[in-house]
Amino acid sequence: MNSKPDKLMPALYGGIIMALISGIPGLNLINCLCCAGIMLGGFLAVFFYRKETGDPSLPFTAGDAAIVGLLAGVFGAVFGVILSSGIRLAFGNFEARLVGSLFERWATELPPEIWDSIRESLGSPLNAVSLMVSFFTSLVLDVLFGLLGGLIGYVVFKPKAGSMVPPPPAPLPSS
Amino acid sequence: MRGDRIGTTVYVLLLVGVLVWLALIVLAPALARSTGPAGDLGAILYSFFGKTCHQLDARSFHFLGHKLAVCSRCTMVYAGFLAGLLFFPLFGYARLRDLPRLGLLLGILPMAADALTGISMFWSPSFVTRSVTGFIGGATLLLYILPPLREAAGDLFNNSAEQQHEFET
Asked: Is B152 in Cβ contact with A61 (below 8 Å)?
């Protein structure tokens, strides 16, 4: 009987990609397009899951894709907060400085509220409360958009109708 | 969808979820006008949605003198979700299950192209192109993910029912 592959490792890879996109300053601007980076993590988790099977005859259901996307979201939230906190502890609020310098270099006129937000972000301290708030916000968003990415992955990678090999018939009970 | 309990439940839950999500987006500027706890709640909503969107004032719809909690593109993506949900009963799960993958690409591509060309600084997308491509992308995405979401709920529900049955016997 064909057994389903492990969901944890593909979800972990997807979650790490999600965390890298969300945690690396500059790269996390991808999430400004309706959390596209988070959805990409869920999508890639399903891609890795499908690749791990290696055999198109193995069963692959929407439920598998949803679970892999959800798990990737959980991993993404955990690693994302660890990564962004680590970067902030090591380099200070590098992200706000980077965004500010990028806009200055491009000579782009920024609305005043963005400058205010950058200044506020540069001055805000990293503490346990802000970490918890950041973690739970990321958890909600990463799980939701990870699930969405996982379902998009299912639509793209699902086997075409008729390509699935039916499972072998169950052995008859011996009398 | 009639007679399909799981399908109806998934549809209703998603409809309520999208309506609440959109309501929070519109509620943020309404609360931002107030002072005290209501104003603080507005700030929390802006901060929450700030994780998903740039929230630039010039690229956002306004309500009661304040920008919505997300930009025009994101607002229209979620509005597209709602439109897709409202039109969904005309199609049903069975008809949407085997839509060609190319349709998904065609639905999302204009939005992605609009966003990417905007970053490149060679082309500045207008308010209208951002909103229209976002709406098309959102509606397309919803119509493609609803059938697998229903299948996933069916898988999980049936599995848990089987496990419960095994436990009881």
From this structure: yes
Backbone phi and psi for residue B114, each to the nearest 5 degrees, phi listed first:
-60, -45
**Tokens representing residue B4 in the block:** 């399909």
Residue B155 has a pLDDT of 86
If contacts are CB pairs under 8 Å, which of residues 77-106 in chain B contact chain A? 77, 98, 101, 104
Higher per-residue confidence, B133 vs A133 = B133
How far apart are the C-alpha atoms of A72 and A7, rounded to whole Å? 10
Interaxial angle between packed helices B72-97 and B101-120, expressed in degrees from 0 to 180 and rounded to the nearest 10:
170
C-alpha radius of gyration, chain B, whole number: 19
Contacts of B83 (CB under 8 A, 6+ apart): B135, B138, B139
Contact list, A137 vs chain B (CB under 8 Å): 48, 51
Instruction: Give the integer Cα–Cα distance in Å for A143 and A130.
Output: 20
Q: How far is B139 from chain A (nearest CA, A)?
A: 14
Residue of B54, B28, B25, B57 whose CA lies nearest to B41: B28
Higher-confidence residue of B5 and A4: namely: B5
Residues 13-72, chain A: which have Cβ within 8 Å of B? 29, 31-35, 61-67
Tokens of B130: 């951002």
Is A99 within 8 Å of chain B by CB? no
CB A152 within 8 A of CB A43: yes
pTM (2 d.p.) = 0.83
Distance separating alpha carbons of residues A123 and A135, to the nearest angstrom: 20
CB within 8 Å: B56 and A114: yes
pLDDT band at A163 (very low <50, low <70, confident <90, very high): low
pLDDT of the residue at A175: 44
Asked casually if ipTM beats, i.e. exceeds, 0.95, the reply is no
Sign of dihedral through CA atoms A65, A66, A69, A72?
A: negative
